[in-house]
Amino acid sequence: MKAGTVYFSPDYFTAAERFSTTALKSGARLQILPLHAKGPTGQELGIEIAWLGAQTPRRVLLHSSGLHGVEGFAGSAIQLQLLDDVPALPADTALVIVHILNPYGMAWLRRVNENNVDLNRNFPHNASYAGAPSMYARLDRFLNPQSPPTSDFYFAKAGYLILRYGLAALKQSVASGQYEFPAGLFFGGTQMEEGPRQYEAFVKQRLALAEKAIVIDVHTGLGKFAEDSLLVDAEEYIRIRDVFGERVTALRPDEVAYRIQGGLGSMISRVLPKAHPVFIGQEFGTYSPVNILHALREENRWHRYGGGTLDHPTKEKLKETFCPASESWRQAVLRRGRELVEQALRELMHA
Ligand SMILES: [Zn+2]
Known about the structure:
Elements: H1 12-25, E1 29-38, E2 44-53, E3 59-65, H2 72-84, E4 93-99, H3 103-107, H4 134-143, H5 154-165, H6 167-175, H7 194-207, E5 212-225, E6 228-232, H8 237-244, E7 248-250, H9 264-271, E8 278-285, H10 289-306, H11 313-322, H12 327-349
Parallel strand pairs: 3-4, 3-5, 5-8, 6-7
Antiparallel strand pairs: 1-2, 2-4, 6-8
Helix pairs in contact: 1-2, 2-12, 5-6, 10-11
This protein binds zinc ion (ZN).
């Protein structure tokens, strides 16, 4: 295994090239789900999937990254490291590594896709794609100013709002997902987007016969710098905590997390009912919620009202916000990323 943080790539296209090369070298079968969205210089984009082990698995570990575009640098690094030193798999087991579910977002340094959709809010249970928390509507002008980035007392306003409503309540109403403000932050879309649609079809077609599935979906942002939380559904909390220990956090409003609508986990459970999937969002903490929201807000303003090109400070800022350059942060990501995969494989073996 290579030392240090060489697995982190400087941009999406480098990461994608390394992923396919390393996957083929590791003996994986490589499949790409093509997408219509294009990169900044017109490049083709697709979701790369490396498949190791059984073709029709009874047990499967599904490891995905980059559902939130710019958050994908960490997950991509974990996956490259994994492909460089593939763990042993029993005959009836597959390890399926899904590289960057939102390649547009990573290529353009956005958290959302080409339609401003937050893909982890794009799988609502009832497929209604309607509604917004009432407080979101009241905060729309603060969250989504209709002008290019400027300094406009954001931090003072944010401080006031936190005093008035409390951080947990604000996070819940701002970030849980909304379907009413298509140009705003945390917009869940009006229908299932192309990437999620393709991915759902892939999971259904290839994994329907699995009897046991563990899913690890890597994110960054929430939580303490360089520490990871394992975010799970509140109903699954006890069961998963028994196995994966104290890092497990239920998705409900508290210091770290908030409930979301239409997350990827809900799609996986719906499509693979037979496998009773254990769905874990592995979330690596970076900066404070107020700073993260600021970076998202300014990048969205640049995208919508400033031109949206990559050569702007809001882009570099967003990347640093979701993938800190800090060597110790990156080492922690690689170490904990690997540990969780090994833990999940051990758990699968008992199934
Ligand atoms: Zn995320």
